[in-house]
Amino acid sequence: MKKILLKLMFLAMLVALLPVHVAQACSGFIVGKDLTADGSTLFGRTEDYPYAPDGGRHNQNYVVVPAKTYKEGDKLEDETNGFTYPHLASEMKYTAVYDSDRGNGSNGDFGAHGFNEAGVSMTATVSASPNDKVLKEDPLVENGLAEASMVDLALPRAKTAREVIETVAKVLDEKGSAEGNVIVAADKNELWYMEILSGHQYVAIKFPTNKYAVFANTYYLGHVDLNDKENVIASKDVEEVAKKANNYKTDKDGNFMIAKSYGPDEYMERNRSRTYAGIKWMDPQAKVTYEDEAYDLLREPTDPNKKYTVHDVIAEQRNRFEHLPEYKADDLVEVGKKIDGNVYKYALGNENVIDAHVYQIKPNLPTAFGGIMWLGLAQSRNTPYVPFYGNVEDTYEAFKNRSTKYDGKSWYWSVWHIDQMAMKYPEIFGNSIQETWKEKEAEWDKEQIERDAKYASLSDEQAKEAGPEVTKEALERSEKIFKEIKAIEAEMEEKIKKEKGEDADLVYEGYNKANLLAEYKDDKKDSQSDQSETKKNDSNQYGMWLIIALVVIIPGFIAFRRSNKKKDQN
Fold this sequence. Notes:
alpha+beta
């Protein structure tokens, strides 16, 4: 009993020390259609979960949410913060990748991304932190719109990418935002990028078709023509709030700079490392350095003939500084070893990734299809990216498994286990797992092109009717790939036992647990020079300490004393 109580108290203290944010380590990208080999628009994100006690062990579900009708008074509710918003009388079907731990009052839904039946797609969100000055003028709203309900709010309603942004903007005007965030929405015709800057301020742009972008947990927008209503959607007071906050920043020509005015004075280290690595992966000749004060959002490759493919952006999400030999991924640090911050950096393809996705919006596909989602659950470094059309009506059972611990029937947990074994025994597996998936992805891409050709000529009505056929193909393909996943998992287990003994550990227990506290200390150092850590976050920290003390530590201490008293009496 004593041991259990002591463990609980230690865990409680560990949790209390860690940041309370939910998704502060995501990385996003966009590639305009003029820069791709097949004329498709590409965008996506990795979702990181760097939180105790599980780190990157956080099951995700890929599901279809059916179209629904609601009666007057029905509301969307966010259990994370109490946000509510009235449902429409009728809402569209959409896909979503949710946290498995949802609907029980302990966690929000967090529908990370998806397609709706109108062919609109979005990813939400790349979290970002406003600076303290603007938050004094326009504070975040405790029960405002947050990441956990963003997809469930927008996708059932929006018939275009622009309508996603307009929907979010309307809600922010009415109810405010609980967080700083970055979201991306796309349809067949255009893509929009939006920065939620403070409690009620935001700016969104129609993304240029001849640019690419890499962004990680901070703001990047420079000067934007706020009078360009066709290509810009912005809150009416976005300049005024910055002025009142005494943080109105301009470029050398006196133009209002959004990120400088609303974001931190300096990038946090983990944001800098991922942005820099992503830019240099996309464009090795890019005129940027690791020490640059800021990185432009809108970028063009140095080579004017460069064209990107879906495999290029998947590789970007897997990147672990292979193209930058001066750096190493910090999840390779041995347990108990001091981290050399000059060498070890937070990688795009890090241990905390729980969901990676690439959306490929092809102009030749019918609108109802939306495009193709390449889904990579669990760690991007060793996950297979599997393609699905946006109009599927159901998903494979292994995607729906909601276990919070390893379960061999779960897609997420099976891939997670493969990654764990690959990372624990690099001397056995090297890069073989990732190379296996690359070969498979090339095959799936060829098959996908053949399917595209079959469906490209469908009318809008025929495309809507093709849902059952598309779903049947997706389910059969998922089952086949899942069997391949399980075969690789079993083969790896046998290989480990053969080379390391029957009792060999099959789970990697390195950086993920051992360095959580060290990571927190690094974050504290960053926050001293990074004004993105807000008073709200501080109050959350203090609140967490108080809750831990009341719920675990104090009762644990009382139980401990009672246990000793009983022993003395005996």
